[in-house]
């Protein structure tokens, strides 16, 4: 059952603590959008404190956008504590497919932590699934495959929820597979929308144990915000600004009217 | 005597260099707001250069928001040079109370550098004072104590100016204690206002040797800006943007009309 | 021959991948502006992956704003691969003249990589040329010298294109020297315009082999954007926002009408 607005309300009333270990490019965007949704973001990556921070958190969001060896070790420590605490762990495999270092480190994380949600664009997810592909830095490259089968297959194989973002997003836990059609072209024209949506995914997973539905709810909400922002945006700067403004416009009627996703 | 506008003018005419060793989340906000006030921000944390950078600076701002062991060592080196040069050192104990690593490193800094201004929200300051408390990541947790007595007592004990930020801010050097009532609720709804106010505190301390008054002046100015921003803000994105726009609206009559603080 | 608009079109149609190893203060601004111009930014500094990332990139932008020893080593590895691949390398010597660490590391980069474009403000370039000067953190200090001769001489000596930014920018490859008069005062009042212009310089160098003309084209475009932004800006926050909005206003007639540079 879909209860997107109820989940959004639950985020606001609980204000979950979302521990991020993320990149230094979009980190402020991630903190800002998490806060706008009513959750409490904390960014902490020192290996001496990530276990303790993950222990007081309600979800852990890992993003390898500007990874290095030290940060990967911190991710493992935080991730293991998250597993022990049984809080959800979102892994955004930003840039996988661009370098073998990213590919290897992403696989290391997948084998050493129980990941809840594995998220990326199509060439990132294809690369982790073993397809021959080339991610263009952190932007999607072209991939020839059936992305619904890709999501379903990988979700089953890894026992995670797979989220593939793009013009249409795919969310699959292997059994249930959703297509989210909200969103707008401008999202791909600015930096940070992928990372921000991972923060929102982590936020909703903190309050909803059906993680596929949590992901769908997060994507629908964030992408409705983007559609509202695009309507008023006169350029890319204003569009980004309005992403933060328009979160407060999400109410029950707006969500019910604008939500656009299907279970297939 | 309060001469807030004169101090603001002095910042503009001197354009002090404010050396920051700070977190990677709000670092751009800190640089932007410092620049908007007419000072010159520089962010430098490599241990090989922080002594030289602190040596040409007019104030040093330390913020442990995304601390790690290397950065703490750089803070110590920069801090010692600042002490030698007799320039003010502001320490924002961002996130203290959330992990023992933060607690320990904050105490290490306090014992190895002569800090001028110790700044945090109520649960951070309570944690450093030895109260049992729990900071929620970098957001304030609940603390049951008389915060005025907390500020006064800690200021006397550590021989620093203590600044506790919140709906009302407390500034105390142990003898003089001020309550600053400027500010608005939206400040707590976005990321970075605490860090930015530390930058402004450092900026005013660079040009005013009565550090308690410098802190009050900084908080009053920044929080008037926030009040002006809130009046025109339609959402959290716009509110943050207008924080930078409205600095230029600070003139003598606006400050005199809107300033709201008392010496108790 | 000047064909600024054609170059801008070429950026959009090719969408070059611009690999940045840069500072953590303005990194998001650099990513955003690169994306606004239609190129694809990637920020990656781990020594394990920079060779591979530079290998798929169309230009490399190095900025030492928040340098440390590890990042300098990564810059060398990336730079050597860029040289091997024969893609342009832009070096922004942010803050040189402020500390001997910066001076030394900038010289190390110049001696170990073949730099295509060396870029800085007047006190940074004067410092690297061996003049006695003092950079104020990352802001320009005063220098008494003929800056045109400084640019020409250094370009010849180092066999690079030298770009000196300021109220008027100088671009010289030793033979051809240009003065770019576009831009506006507000550019110096906010943080990040220098770093962003380095990203745009790298972007244009990725698609134009006459690197001096590529630099001129980049500066003219970015500074026209700044002039358009200033016309509508009510404060420094709005000005920065509109830098991103106004990139889409760059068309052939706007560029031809507003471009303001001379070959001397």
Q: Notable features of this structure?
A:
homotrimer; 9 strands; alpha/beta; nine-stranded mixed beta sheet; 15% strand; 264 residues; UDP-N-acetylmuramoyl-L-alanine:D-glutamate ligase
Q: What's the layout of helices and strands?
A:
The structure is a homotrimer of 264-residue chains.
Chain A lengths: L3 H11 L2 E5 L5 H10 L3 E4 L6 H7 L2 E5 L5 H17 L3 E4 L7 H13 L4 E5 H7 L18 H12 L2 E5 L3 E4 L4 E4 L12 H13 L5 H22 L3 H10 L6 H7 L2 E3 L1
Parallel strand pairs in A: 1-2, 1-3, 3-4, 4-5, 5-6
Antiparallel strand pairs in A: 6-7, 7-8, 8-9
Helix pairs in contact in A: 1-9, 2-8, 3-4, 8-9, 9-10
Could you characterize the architecture of this molecule?
The structure is a homotrimer of 264-residue chains. The first copy, chain A, has 264 residues and is an alpha/beta fold. The first copy, chain A, has a domain at 4-165 and 189-210: UDP-N-acetylmuramoyl-L-alanine:D-glutamate ligase (3-Layer(aba) Sandwich), CATH 3.40.1190.20. Helices cover 49% and strands 15% of the residues of chain A. Chain A has helices at residues 4-14, 27-36, 50-56, 69-85, 100-112, 122-128, 147-158, 193-205, 211-232, 236-245, 252-258, and strands spanning 17-21, 40-43, 59-63, 89-92, 117-121, 161-165, 169-172, 177-180, 261-263. In chain A, strands 2-1-3-4-5-6-7-8-9 form a 9-stranded mixed sheet, sandwiched between helices. In chain A, helix 4 (69-85) links the parallel strand 3 (59-63) and strand 4. Chain A starts with a helix and ends with a strand. The mean pLDDT of chain A is 95.
